[in-house]
Amino acid sequence: MVHMKEIKIGGCACVLVLLFSGLVACSGVFGSPLTDDVATLDTLRENIPKDYKIRVRYISKDVGGMCWVHLNLYPAESSLKNLALKFGNVSSNRENITIFITMLQGLRVTIDNEELESTMQAFKCHYRSARWSTRRYFDHVKEVLVTFASTPHQFYCTPPPCPTPTASVVTSDRRVIDRAVPGILALLVIPCLAALALILRTVLRRKMCCAERRREGSDDVARQSDPDASIDASHNDSQSCFLNNQYRVQQVEDTGV
């Protein structure tokens, strides 16, 4: 019985030691988020092509103010999760990205989750979406991690007024109109030119027909108004008929001989 009690006491002591060491390790991670793993960001930046565009949602420093780093914790984490899905399960890039996802999740645990959600909701209209190059993206993630070390965990920020959507809407409408104007003009101009060409062709044909009719009419009038020309014409016709008759009589006489 004494032996069994010693075993139970020894087992409890081991469990307590493991729990204590785990708490120490967790408190070390949460208290000092900058570890040697941050240097892995440079390795990730070199392993991913420079021209690769990574989608990110962020708030700029001039808008976020003192809450800038807190407002970018969760968007950076979500962006890293989406980036990790681009690589296979056995990829070293995915393994390294998972390290920073865990770090950002640990940082969020150290602050009030409800306060963070309410602040993000208050700044919702100020978030922007972009596609950054590899270098700029990982510089942003690294800056978030480094800045959090010197930022108090308790925060309270008042968001600036939301930007008026009219300017962006008007700008987008103008862009749509500017792009659509050439196509609309082409659709209007081409049929008009085709119709104008058909009208000109029809007018020219009518003018030519009218000119020919006028010529024929003037020739008929000239013949009717000149009696000498008609007499000469009839005289010529009678002479040609008389000569033809004489020629036929001569042929009959020659055949008779």
From TrEMBL:
Chain segments carrying region Disordered: 217-237
User: Per the annotation, which location comes first and is thus the protein's main one?
Assistant: membrane
Source organism per entry reads: Ameiurus melas (Black bullhead)
Q: What are the recorded Gene Ontology BP terms?
A: cell adhesion; positive regulation of cell population proliferation
What keywords is this UniProt entry annotated with? Cell adhesion, Cell membrane, Cell projection, Cytoplasm, Cytoskeleton, Disulfide bond, Glycoprotein, Growth factor, Membrane, Secreted, Signal, Transmembrane, Transmembrane helix
**Leader sequence residues:** 1-26
User: Which family is this protein grouped under?
Assistant: Belongs to the SCF family.
| InterPro entries xref list | 4_helix_cytokine-like_core, SCF
Tell me what this protein is called. Answer: Kit ligand
Regions that span the bilayer: 184-204
Gene Ontology, cellular component aspect: cytoskeleton; extracellular region; filopodium; lamellipodium; plasma membrane
- In what ranges is there compositional bias, type Basic and acidic residues? 217-226
Question: What Gene3D superfamilies would the database entry show?
Answer: 1.20.1250.10
What is one Pfam family matched by this protein? SCF
